């Protein structure tokens, strides 16, 4: 309906503005301070990044309620990956926040999201530009695996700090003998992360074929 379409347009616009601010801030800071700006990326843009990622949880509700026709599982995996790495791994360990991998990860996320939300906004209005459509369904194929590698590296970098500080590790008192050692949980999650990557990449190729097939390109040109 028109109301739902306007709601989705406003949502995409909010995400576009947030990620545009982050991306512009990162570029300006790098041009001004050079490599010194990389270490405090999280401190300068972390708040807005966390707000944008929390807002993205709404996309799961959009699919569940049927106002967004995207596939649920791939989008759910992509969103939860970011939430876990950003809030559980990076946000909880101050020592990790200053690592260069955080800057790389934020750059990849924002580059992907700027293209995606720009495409979505125009699509809500029935506007399709072939170069933007191609970029939206092609750029994610090489950049998503790179972002997964950056997530995996961020998790590996954080492991010594989780081991030293015991963050999120739980040891239940007697008579219980059950305990949760969080570094083991993160190591198991690495397997889930790279297994899910294979599934999501397959879905990305499927979406690219569905939107960039010869017939679809002709229809959008006309």
Automatic annotation (TrEMBL):
Enzyme class: lyase
Membrane-related topology note: Multi-pass membrane protein
Pathway: Lipid metabolism; fatty acid biosynthesis
Entry keywords, A to Z: Endoplasmic reticulum, Fatty acid biosynthesis, Fatty acid metabolism, Lipid biosynthesis, Lipid metabolism, Lyase, Membrane, Transmembrane, Transmembrane helix
EC number(s) per entry: 4.2.1.134
One Pfam assignment: PTPLA
Top-level division of the source organism's lineage: Eukaryota
Gene Ontology biological-process entries: fatty acid elongation; sphingolipid biosynthetic process; very long-chain fatty acid biosynthetic process
Protein localization: Endoplasmic reticulum membrane; Membrane
GO molecular function, one term: very-long-chain (3R)-3-hydroxyacyl-CoA dehydratase activity
Keyword Membrane on entry: yes
Signal sequence segment: none
Keyword hit for Nuclease: no
One GO cellular component, as annotated: endoplasmic reticulum membrane
Reaction equation(s) it catalyzes: a very-long-chain (3R)-3-hydroxyacyl-CoA = a very-long-chain (2E)-enoyl-CoA + H2O; (3R)-hydroxyhexadecanoyl-CoA = (2E)-hexadecenoyl-CoA + H2O
Main location: endoplasmic reticulum
Residue ranges of the TM segments: 7-30, 42-64, 127-144, 181-201
Family the entry assigns: Belongs to the very long-chain fatty acids dehydratase HACD family.
Task performed by this protein: Catalyzes the third of the four reactions of the long-chain fatty acids elongation cycle. This endoplasmic reticulum-bound enzymatic process, allows the addition of two carbons to the chain of long- and very long-chain fatty acids/VLCFAs per cycle. This enzyme catalyzes the dehydration of the 3-hydroxyacyl-CoA intermediate into trans-2,3-enoyl-CoA, within each cycle of fatty acid elongation. Thereby, it participates to the production of VLCFAs of different chain lengths that are involved in multiple biological processes as precursors of membrane lipids and lipid mediators.
Protein's name according to its UniProt entry: Very-long-chain (3R)-3-hydroxyacyl-CoA dehydratase
Source organism: Rhagologus leucostigma
């Amino acid at each position: 309906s028109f109301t739902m379409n306007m709601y989705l347009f406003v949502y995409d616009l909010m995400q576009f503005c947030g990620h545009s601010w982050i991306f512009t801030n990162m570029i300006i800071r790098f041009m001004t301070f050079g490599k010194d700006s990389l270490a405090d990326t999280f401190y300068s843009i972390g708040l807005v990044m966390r707000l944008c990622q929390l807002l993205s949880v709404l996309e799961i509700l959009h699919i569940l309620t049927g106002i967004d026709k995207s596939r649920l599982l791939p989008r759910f995996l992509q969103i939860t990956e970011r939430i876990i790495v950003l809030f559980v791994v990076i946000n909880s360990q101050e020592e990790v926040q200053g690592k260069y991998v955080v800057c790389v990860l934020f750059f990849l996320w924002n580059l992907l999201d700027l293209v995606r939300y720009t495409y979505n906004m125009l699509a809500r209005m029935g506007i399709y530009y072939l170069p933007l459509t191609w970029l939206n369904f092609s750029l994610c194929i090489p950049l998503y695996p790179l972002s997964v590698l950056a997530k995996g590296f961020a998790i590996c970098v954080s492991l010594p700090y989780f081991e030293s500080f015991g963050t999120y590790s739980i040891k239940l008192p007697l008579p219980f003998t059950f305990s949760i050692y969080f570094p083991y949980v993160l190591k198991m999650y690495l397997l889930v992360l790279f297994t899910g990557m294979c599934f999501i990449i397959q879905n990305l190729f499927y979406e690219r074929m569905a939107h960039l097939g010869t017939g679809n390109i002709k229809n959008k040109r006309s």
